[in-house]
TrEMBL record:
InterPro entries: ABC-4_Integral_Memb_Prot, ABC3_permease_C, ABC_permease_BceB-typ
GO biological process terms, semicolon-separated: transmembrane transport
UniProt keyword terms in alphabetical order: Cell membrane, Membrane, Transmembrane, Transmembrane helix, Transport
Pfam families (alphabetical): FtsX
Organism of derivation: Chryseomicrobium excrementi
Protein name from the UniProt record: ABC transporter permease
Subcellular location: Cell membrane
Family membership noted in the UniProt record: Belongs to the ABC-4 integral membrane protein family.
């Protein structure tokens, strides 16, 4: 048997230990390859979509590679530790240090090459499904499956380099271990679980400070404390698993009525040992799980914003023309022509807007007629208004208690009282010079003098509001006008008109957020798989020790049902203690995110966040049941 065959058979024989490592590696390769296929797709002609696709996929690829590197390094050390006794026996039988290093290097490279081939194979299979989802989200005419060497070469080069680095790291791990350490295997003598009271109270204090600062930031809307919150949460989580949880268990042990009862003495003593041994692993799982939940939550909130975009922009297409605008007729003709080409039905509504001067501020204000607003509101099925002479409403903005005001128009000596706002179809502030108010028809007719600092030509602006029932299909309406608007902003030029197409804007927003959602979900899937794999590695690293422990308990007379209860109680904290803290971190993060969205867009993301938290909880429960099933099978804890 050659050395290569020996390494290959070692991999096959230890396939149970390597299973999670192989699955996580293959899945990471598959996701990276799928991203790369979109990155190099030749059929994406829209420049904006090209840019967001390139940026999103490139960032996701970099994050995947960096995380996969650290994850595989940790995984490698875990299963090399599980096989340490085997390596010690090989050295006793005459294998020298360099041969052992070579053996580990070859085994790791075999796993890496097979994982690379498997990931690319399944990645290419699932790319078609991925493209179908992306095509629907980005509203593309076609996004066919293609064959190009670039994605294959990029994936192969990146992950081959990654697996070489991992293999070298494994060789270094073996080189630094003495034979006596290897022969002792993963089993260590049970020691008293030492903890620091200072560390325990520090963990409670840091977590309390982190959560307290979140609540403070909610009240003050101050995001500058975010770095401090993150650092406190990370440090608090580390010390919680290192000292805090051991301190709490120690307190429970002192309650003899609770501790010296039934099987709890076995459960608690074993839990203390496992927590002490796996504190760093629990910390890593908590941070990885928190990152996965928050990343999906943030992207889901962005998608919610896109879905609620229509509610804040009910006017399908808006064109605002200043008096004397030479392009007005041609632009309106162009828009109606675009509607005809896209086979869209529309209703055109117009409303004159008059500029006057507020005597209190000596600044311009924009005035709209009650009848014109009601005409638009009736078409949009929004509430109508009924104003008496001397009454007015702030258009597009809320008037809070204490903000009521009496406005005096200098040009025409008109007074009107404003104590409420009309926010049902706000117009963009950029379309007007100054705040806008709605006047009763009687007061509006009394405006006979032009703007104080101009003439009638500079006093009147006309709003053209197009209502399109099928507004999502307006993304190809007014593209020329939209480009002119963008050019004017970039060049600081003033135009005699203003154009806004929410359908076009929504297509950009929806495409960006949908792409981010898919990217975030796939990256989160890698993170969740990795978090579960960390626990999997620890289970199988200690499997032999646990099997011997349960065999002793069985000889002592414990029934199979009692052994299952003990095993269940040992599994609960390993799965749900890090998960519970991660959910707590994510919940406070979502509270802060909700406050930010309320401040930006008066939008609730509560339902989206509940769905995200519920979905991740279900995933964790399913993963727990699968691991428990395999764990019980290996410990021979059958029912009955």
């Amino acid at each position: 048997m050659t050395f290569l065959q020996f390494a290959y058979r070692n991999v096959i024989r230890n396939r149970r230990v390597y299973a999670a490592y192989f699955m996580a590696s293959s899945f990471s390769v598959m996701v990276f390859f799928i991203y790369s296929m979109l990155l190099f797709h030749p059929s994406i002609e829209n420049q904006f979509i090209q840019e967001i696709a390139f940026m999103g996929m490139a960032v996701a690829d970099v994050v995947l590679v960096i995380f996969t590197l650290f994850f595989l390094l940790y995984s490698l050390s875990a299963f090399l530790q599980a096989r340490s006794k085997e390596f010690g026996i090989l050295q006793q039988l005459g294998m020298d240090r360099s041969q052992l290093q070579r053996l580990v290097f070859i085994e790791t490279m075999i796993l890496g090459v097979v994982a690379l081939a498997t990931g690319i194979f399944f990645g290419y299979i699932f790319t078609k499904l991925f493209f179908m989802v992306i095509r629907a989200m980005l509203v593309l005419d076609t996004l066919p499956l293609y064959f190009s060497p670039e994605p294959f070469l990029l994936t192969a080069v990146v992950f081959t380099t990654l697996f070489i680095v991992i293999s070298i790291a494994g060789s270094i791990f073996i080189r630094q271990s003495a034979i006596i350490q290897l022969l002792s295997g993963s089993t260590q003598s049970r020691e008293t679980a030492h903890f620091s009271k200072v560390g325990a109270f520090l963990s409670f204090g840091l977590l309390a400070v982190a959560y307290g600062l979140v609540l403070y930031c909610l009240y003050e809307m101050n995001v500058w404390w975010s770095p401090v919150i993150i650092l406190c949460a990370i440090a608090g989580s580390y010390y919680f698993f290192k000292d805090g949880i051991l301190y709490l268990i120690h307190k429970l042990q002192r309650n003899k009525q609770l501790y010296w009862r039934s099987l709890r003495i076995v459960t608690f003593s074993d839990a203390i040992e496992k927590i002490r041994e796996n504190a760093r692993m629990y910390f890593i799982v908590t941070m990885v799980s928190t990152l996965a939940i928050i990343s999906v939550g943030v992207v889901a909130s962005l998608t919610s914003f896109a879905n609620q975009y229509r509610e804040s922009n009910p006017i399908s297409v808006l064109y605002v023309s200043e008096s004397g605008n030479p392009y007005e007729a041609s632009h309106i003709d162009q828009l109606t022509s675009d509607f005809y080409k896209e086979n869209l039905t529309y209703t055109l509504l117009t409303a004159p807007v008059t500029k006057q001067t507020s005597a209190a501020t000596n600044r311009p204000v924009q005035l709209l007629r009650e009848t014109d607003i009601n005409t638009i509101a009736a078409v949009l099925k929004e509430p109508l208004i009924d104003l008496e002479p001397g009454e007015g409403m702030r258009f597009g903005q809320e008037v809070r208690d204490g903000q009521e005001q009496l406005i005096h128009l200098r040009e025409n000596t008109i007074y009107f009282h404003v104590d409420e706002g009309y926010q049902y179809f706000p117009l963009p502030e950029a379309a007007f010079d100054g705040p806008a108010y709605i006047l009763s028809d009687e007061d509006f007719e009394r405006i006979v003098n032009p703007y104080l600092y101009g003439d009638w030509a500079s006093s009147v602006t006309t709003v053209f509001a197009f209502h399109v029932p099928d507004w999502l299909r307006t993304d190809k309406v007014g593209l020329t006008l939209d480009r002119e608007m963008i050019a004017s902003y970039e060049g600081n030029q003033e135009l005699p008109f203003y154009f806004d197409n929410p359908g076009l804007n929504y297509s950009y927003i929806s495409s960006t957020f949908s792409l981010l959602l898919v990217t975030g979900l796939l990256v989160a899937a890698v993170l969740i798989l990795a978090a579960g794999s960390f626990i999997y590695f620890k289970f199988y690293t200690n499997l032999e020790k646990d099997r011997r422990q349960f065999e002793v308990l069985r000889h002592m007379g414990l029934t199979n049902q009692e052994l299952r209860r003990i095993a269940n109680r040992q599994l609960y904290p390993q799965f749900f203690l890090p998960w519970g803290l991660a959910m707590l971190h994510a919940t406070f993060s979502f509270l802060f995110l909700q406050a930010v969205w309320v401040d930006i867009a008066a939008m609730s993301i509560a339902m989206e966040m509940l769905i995200v938290l519920g979905a991740f909880t279900c995933i964790q429960a399913v993963y727990y049941l699968l691991i428990r099933w395999r764990y019980f099978a290996h410990l021979q804890l059958h029912t009955g």
